[in-house]
Design goal:
It contains no helices and 18 strands. With 209 residues, the chain is mostly beta strands. Strand 13 and strand 14 form a beta hairpin.
């Protein structure tokens, strides 16, 4: 799957897990896709240069480039069994809608950047400042914009597994580390992995909610 930041990409690609069967045009006509996620039925993507979240079947059919109208600047997209959540870095808002695209709330949580992740009972998100991570309950209550502050660089995206939260130090393309912390915000290790170059997207195995 491909995405772009600040460019003009219009495709989402697919390949087998062993790297074979590359299809660079699996889905075409996307609005500069930025942030892609899947569940058991669909693939969803944000539009960095568009105003919507797109959706298609896992085989690439049934493409709907305007599945949910969100406003511009959507990069992070996550899906649970009931809802789809997205981070709009232009408005600083996290939005939420039902999986069928109804019940859209573009102002579900305020103060976010481009990254968003869900694990257990919480939603985690990068702060609009880029130097911290916020946390809230899945229903949007209990928003804590000081959950983790003073982190290195400019954080772009987040990922979680059952025990930890991970973030890439993008820093405008010059960051060199990936950080890790416990899901309760303790045990912060800002240099968990060093020697990266402008880390942006990040994923871990076992990270789906």
């Amino acid at each position: 799957m491909t995405s772009a930041n600040g460019g003009s990409a219009t495709t989402i690609a697919r390949a087998n897990l062993d790297g074979s069967g590359v299809n660079q045009n699996f889905i075409t006509g996307a609005h500069n896709p930025c942030g892609v996620t899947v569940n058991t039925n669909f693939i969803y993507w944000g539009g960095d240069a568009g105003t919507s979240i797109g959706r298609a079947n896992l085989n690439g059919s049934g493409v709907n480039q305007d599945f949910i109208q969100t406003g511009g600047g959507v990069c992070g997209v996550v899906v649970t069994k009931k809802y789809i959540y997205w981070a709009n870095y232009q408005t600083g808002q996290i939005g939420r809608a039902k999986l069928n695209g109804k019940g859209v709330n573009t102002n579900f949580i305020s103060g976010c950047g481009s990254g968003i992740a869900i694990q257990g009972d919480f939603i985690y998100f990068t702060l609009s400042s880029g130097t911290g991570i916020g946390r809230a309950n899945l229903d949007g209550t209990g928003v804590d914009l000081n959950f983790m502050t003073g982190l290195n660089g400019l954080i772009a995206f987040l990922a979680t597994d059952k025990n930890n939260l991970y973030w890439a130090d993008w820093a405008g393309g010059s960051g060199t580390t990936i950080g890790r912390a416990n899901l309760d915000g303790t045990g912060v290790n800002q240099t968990f992995i060093s020697g990266t170059v402008g880390g942006f997207g990040i994923a871990v195995t076992g990270g789906s909610p």
